[in-house]
Amino acid sequence: MKPYKLSLPLKQTNCVLFNSPHSGSVYTDKFMQLTDLSLHILRSSEDLFVDQLFSPVVGLGSLMLSAKFPRSFIDLNRDCEELDPLLIEDLTAYKDTLKVSAGLGVIPRVVADQTPIYKHRLSIDDATERLRGFYFPYHDKLKSLIKQTETSFNKVILLDCHSMPLSSVNLARKKEPVEVVLGDCFGRSCEHEIVVELKNLLTEVGFKVSLNNPFAGGFITKNYASPPNNIHVVQIEILRSLYSHEKQKIKNREFAKIQRRLIGVIEEFIKRFAD
């Protein structure tokens, strides 16, 4: 089984790529045997239905890559060296980042609410096998799509698609929560004109949009962006409760409506920036 799904149009007609690294929901028996957590709890780490939410972009002539495996198994939005010494035995070399300390490295130790995933620690061989079988093939495919698009259009705009729980958004009194957060690493991953236009288009159709707050972009945004070489990356975080029941892990009645608004924005964005 390939660790990713690549959705292809009949012909790629624009330079805008879509990536959904956290919406995978295939939980293997082997993985489930390593944990005492229920599937419902494990799914709290998923970017629920994000791959489905953005899937109509293929009809606009864009490519879309999405993970099949879940974020709780491997987090593709981390450096491969962000390994957790509290989870993996005999680990001698790793990047000791804040994410790793929080249990949210490339192989997460905890799910979204800080509940430990595993019954026992993993061996270094288990971790290496997981990276080789899932992490590296996914990133190799993403790199090849970026290169293919750059060759065809001399420009790449990668939209890295995520969702955020309501709990991650600061709820000020008498103020409705932010619904979409665009991250460009504070101007380092994308030309300013591109992200501002995307923000304006989203705002015009009624979304409440923030730039870089509280999410400025993760490993994928930082690692693949190269604005001087005309490769631009924007991370998109959409409020999960807009289109789903977070606790029940099901779509709500607004899903189709939110999807139409979102795809309408993307269609206009492609017209303006993908020529």
For the secondary structure, the number of strands is 9
What's the number of helices?
8
Write down the overall geometry. Answer: globular
Terminal CA distance: 35 Å
What is the share of helical residues? 25-40%
Low-confidence stretches: none
The SSE string, one letter per element, is EEHHHEHHEEHEHEEEH
Q: Quaternary status of these chains? A: single chain
What strand line-up does the widest sheet have? Answer: 1-3-2-4-7-5-6
Instruction: Determine the strand fraction and express it as a percent band.
Output: 15-25%
Largest sheet: 7 strands, mixed
Round the Cα radius of gyration to an integer and report it: 18 Å
Provide the residue-averaged pLDDT: 95
Helix/strand-derived category reads: alpha/beta
Structure in words:
This protein has 275 residues and is α/β, with parallel strands linked by helices. Helices cover 31% and strands 16% of the residues. Strands 1-3-2-4-7-5-6 form a seven-stranded mixed β-sheet, sandwiched between helices. It has a two-stranded antiparallel sheet with strand order 8-9. Strand 5, helix 6 and strand 6 form a beta-alpha-beta unit. The protein is globular, with a radius of gyration of 18 Å. The relative contact order is 0.17.
